[in-house]
C-alpha cells in the first residue's frame, strides 16, 4: 500500500507556497505525482445574485472584476507551483462548476494537503477544506511548521469509525515513521476499546508501534495534544467530525480543538 497522487488545492494567495512545499515533501517521500489544483471562486455562485436574464452596469463591472481576479490568482498559483523543484507534478485549473471539479480531482488523489488557515475556517480555501474532509471524506494533511516525513507519528484512537478509518489510511505514512505511538484516553470516551487491537493491526502490516494509555477523564483532545507533544510527534493521525458536523462546528468538539492547536501537523479522515 502506498500513495501515488498528492493534491494541494491552491487559491492564488499567500498560503499557496506553504501548501505546495508541504505537498512536494509528501510526494517526494512516496515518489508520487504532485497535483496543484487552482480552486477559484465559482462564477456560477455569483450569477444568481446578479439576477436572471439581465446584467446592469454594476453587475457587469463586478463580474469582470471577478474574472480578472480569477485570472490573476491563476497566474500567481502557477508561478508558485512552478517554483517548486519537483519533477512529477501537474497543474490543474478548475472551471465552473468548481466544486464538482474539486471533488473529481480529490477522488483520484490519495491525500489532500491544506495549511492551518483553511482548516480553521479562514481564507479562500476554508470551504474547500470542509468539502474535502466532511463531504468527500478524503484523507487530509493539515501541514504546520516543522512538518517532516519520517519522524514520530502519533495515532489518536478511540475505536470509533472515524478514528479507525484515519488509522488505516495513514498506514503508508506510518511505514516511514521513526516511531509510532498509539494514544488512547479510555476514561474520556464512552466507548469500550482496546488499543492493543490497533497495535496488532499495524504489526500485521510490518509497522511496529507502542501504546500510550492516558488516565485523563476530561477533554480528550487536550489530553491527546499534550501526549503527542510529550513524545515529540510531528504528525498526529485522528478521526474528524465524529459527531454531526454542524454540532461540532457550533459547540466545538475534539476536531475543532485539534484544528485550533498550533502543532503538530494533522492527518485527518472522516
Summed up:
By secondary structure, the chain is an alpha/beta fold. The chain has twelve helices and ten strands.
Structure in words:
With 270 residues, the protein is α/β, with parallel strands linked by helices. Mean pLDDT is 89; it is low at 246-252. The protein has a 10-stranded mixed β-sheet, with helices on both faces. 40% of the residues are buried. Helix 10 (220-230) packs parallel to helix 12. The chain has helices spanning 16-30, 43-50, 57-82, 98-107, 116-119, 126-135, 161-169, 171-175, 195-203, 220-230, 245-251, 253-260; strands at residues 5-10, 33-38, 89-93, 111-115, 140-143, 152-156, 179-184, 210-213, 235-239, 265-269. The two termini are 20 Å apart. The radius of gyration is 20 Å and the shape is globular. The chain is built from 12 helices and 10 strands.
List keywords for this structure.
45% helix; 19% strand; alpha/beta; 270 residues
Major sheet strand order? 3-2-1-4-5-10-9-6-7-8
Q: What is the helix content?
A: 40-55%
Shape: globular
Radius of gyration: 20 Å
Count of strand segments: 10
- How far is it from the N-terminal to the C-terminal residue, by CA? 20 Å
Mean pLDDT, rounded to whole units? 89
Stretches where pLDDT is under 50 for at least 5 consecutive residues are: 246-252
Main sheet: strands, sense, barrel = 10 strands, mixed
Structural class: alpha/beta
SS element count, helices: 12
Binned strand content: 15-25%
Q: Spell the H/E element sequence.
A: EHEHHEHEHHEEHHEHEHEHHE
Amino acid at each position: 500500500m502506498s500513495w501515488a497522487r498528492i493534491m494541494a488545492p491552491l487559491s492564488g494567495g499567500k498560503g499557496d507556497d506553504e501548501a505546495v512545499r508541504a505537498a512536494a515533501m509528501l510526494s517526494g517521500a512516496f515518489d508520487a505525482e504532485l497535483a496543484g489544483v487552482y480552486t477559484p471562486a465559482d462564477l456560477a455562485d455569483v450569477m444568481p445574485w446578479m439576477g436572471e436574464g439581465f446584467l446592469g452596469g454594476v453587475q457587469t463591472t463586478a463580474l469582470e472584476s471577478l474574472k480578472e481576479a480569477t485570472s490573476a490568482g491563476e497566474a500567481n498559483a502557477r508561478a508558485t507551483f512552478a517554483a517548486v523543484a519537483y519533477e512529477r507534478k501537474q497543474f490543474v485549473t478548475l472551471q465552473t462548476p468548481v466544486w464538482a471539479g474539486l471533488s473529481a480531482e480529490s477522488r483520484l488523489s490519495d491525500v489532500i494537503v491544506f495549511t492551518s488557515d483553511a482548516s480553521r475556517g479562514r481564507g479562500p480555501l476554508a470551504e474547500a477544506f470542509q468539502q474535502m474532509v466532511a463531504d468527500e471524506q478524503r484523507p487530509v494533511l493539515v501541514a504546520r511548521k516543522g512538518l517532516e516525513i519520517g519522524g514520530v507519528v502519533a495515532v489518536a484512537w478511540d475505536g470509533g469509525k472515524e478514528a479507525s478509518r484515519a488509522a488505516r489510511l495513514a498506514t503508508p505514512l506510518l511505514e516511514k515513521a521513526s516511531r509510532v505511538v498509539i494514544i488512547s484516553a479510555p476514561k474520556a470516551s464512552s466507548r469500550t476499546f482496546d488499543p492493543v487491537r490497533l497495535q496488532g493491526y499495524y504489526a500485521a502490516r510490518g509497522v511496529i508501534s507502542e501504546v500510550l494509555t492516558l488516565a485523563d477523564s476530561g477533554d480528550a483532545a487536550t489530553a491527546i495534544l499534550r501526549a503527542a507533544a510529550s513524545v515529540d510527534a510531528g504528525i498526529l493521525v485522528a478521526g474528524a467530525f465524529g459527531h454531526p458536523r454542524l454540532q461540532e462546528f457550533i459547540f466545538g468538539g475534539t476536531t475543532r480543538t485539534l484544528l485550533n492547536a498550533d502543532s503538530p501537523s494533522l492527518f485527518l479522515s472522516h
